[in-house]
């Protein structure tokens, strides 16, 4: 199948609340799927709070913000996260999406942009929540953006949340120093138990990391197998089961990030036979992954499990 050249692709736009409300373009080209990521269509605008446009529905508080990246990435990550943590004080964080310009590039002192982002984010959590913050961090993803801004999107809730780790992956917040001065601050999954007893489950960006090491560096086929195994393992750990979930009318949406657009057909064919159901929503996006040797990352949101 011929694919459009990367330059012609439209970029993913995040819309919270009703269609047509202001959107955030996150600088991630869409390969196939919906160019609008519609989050919580029932939410209503709840005002601008600092840098964040916020939205709310009964139990949810949502928002997005963007600030310039470049040499100010670490400070701006810290500043956005301090605002985010303060404005969600009466809620529990359930999911954060991060889009980081030039994620695999390095700043003048050679610290990688992703590592600078991780430092700013960890500093914000530590200053707001104290040194034990890691047990409270929610599910997240952090992928490369082709735009100029660091974009941050969050979902928080007044319902109860539990965070889960994957037994076959080291918790990211415990990664050793070889990956950067401050480890990433996120949980592998967050489960929201709704007042009606159903669960909404956010599975973080999941890649081919075993323990803390990259599995088959640069090899998409091997990494996809490892990523699918990680998804089954976190599904089991968080109580959904490896079928995410086995049976049900739960609505599932997936985002698949590919470093190389040329991997699309092979990855999509395998996911169709090994992961996806006809009722799932899935978008394939062209993005750099936070480690240079990773080619694929998959995230999931499961509502009503
Ligand atoms: C990993 O497992 C791959 O920094 O928020 C996945 C999900 C990854 C979230 C983040 C990073 C983040 O470490 C990368």
Sequence-ordered SSE layout with sheet pairings:
Layout lengths: L10 E6 L6 E10 L3 E4 L4 E6 L2 E5 L3 E9 L4 H15 L4 E10 L11 H17 L9 E7 L3 E9 L2 E5 L24 E5 L5 E8 L2 E2 L2 E2 L5 H18 L13 E8 L5 H11 L6 E6 L9 E8 L2
Parallel strand pairs: 1-3, 7-8, 15-16
Antiparallel strand pairs: 1-2, 2-16, 4-5, 5-6, 6-9, 7-9, 10-11, 11-12, 12-17, 13-14, 15-17
The chain binds 3-(2-carboxyethyl)benzoic acid.
* Shape label: globular
Largest sheet: 9 strands, mixed
Strand content: 35-45%
Q: List low-pLDDT spans.
A: none
User: Given the structure, what is the number of helices?
Assistant: 4
Write down the secondary-structure element order: EEEEEEHEHEEEEEEEHEHEE
- On the 0 to 100 scale, the average pLDDT is 96
Please give the radius of gyration in angstroms. Answer: 18 Å
For the terminal residues, how far apart are their CA atoms? Answer: 35 Å
Distinct ligand kinds: 3-(2-carboxyethyl)benzoic acid
Helix content, binned percent: 10-25%
Order of the strands making up the biggest sheet = 3-1-2-16-15-17-12-11-10
Instruction: Supply the helix-strand structural class.
Output: alpha+beta
Number of strands: 17
Molecular structure report:
This protein is α+β, with helices and mostly antiparallel strands and 305 residues long. It is built from 4 helices and 17 strands. It has a 9-stranded mixed sheet with strand order 3-1-2-16-15-17-12-11-10, covered by helices on one side. Strand 13 and strand 14 form a beta hairpin. Helix 1 runs parallel beside helix 2. It is globular, with a radius of gyration of 18 Å. The two termini are 35 Å apart. The mean pLDDT is 96. The site of 3-(2-carboxyethyl)benzoic acid has 12 residues, from strand 8 and strand 12.
């Amino acid at each position: 199948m011929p694919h459009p050249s990367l330059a012609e692709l439209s970029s993913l736009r995040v819309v919270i609340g009703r269609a047509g409300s202001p959107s955030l373009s996150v600088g991630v080209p869409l390969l196939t799927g919906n160019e609008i990521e519609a989050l919580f269509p029932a939410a209503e605008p709840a005002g601008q709070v600092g840098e964040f446009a916020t939205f709310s529905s009964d139990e949810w508080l949502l928002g997005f913000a963007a600030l310039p990246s470049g040499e100010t990435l670490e400070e701006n990550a810290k500043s956005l996260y301090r605002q985010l943590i303060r404005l969600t004080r009466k809620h529990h964080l359930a999911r954060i999406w991060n889009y980081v310009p030039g994620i695999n590039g390095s700043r003048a002192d050679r610290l990688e942009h992703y590592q600078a982002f991780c430092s700013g984010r960890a500093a914000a959590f530590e200053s707001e929540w104290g040194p034990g913050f890691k047990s409270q961090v929610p599910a997240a993803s952090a992928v490369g953006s082709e735009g100029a801004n660091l974009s941050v999107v969050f979902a928080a809730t007044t319902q109860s949340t539990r965070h889960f780790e994957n037994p076959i992956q080291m918790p990211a917040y415990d990664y050793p120093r070889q990956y950067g001065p401050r480890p990433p601050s996120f949980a592998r999954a967050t489960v929201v138990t709704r007042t009606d007893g159903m669960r909404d489950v956010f599975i973080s960006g999941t890649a081919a990391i075993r323990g803390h090491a990259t599995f088959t560096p640069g090899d998409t086929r091997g990494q996809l197998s490892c990523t699918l195994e990680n998804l089954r393992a976190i599904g089991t750990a968080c109580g959904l089961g490896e079928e995410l979930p086995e049976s049900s009318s739960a609505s599932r949406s997936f985002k698949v990030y590919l470093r190389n657009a040329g991997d699309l057909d092979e990855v999509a064919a395998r996911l169709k036979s090994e992961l996806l159901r006809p009722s799932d929503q899935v978008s394939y996006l062209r993005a750099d992954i936070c480690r240079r040797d990773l080619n694929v990352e998959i995230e999931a949101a499961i509502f009503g499990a």
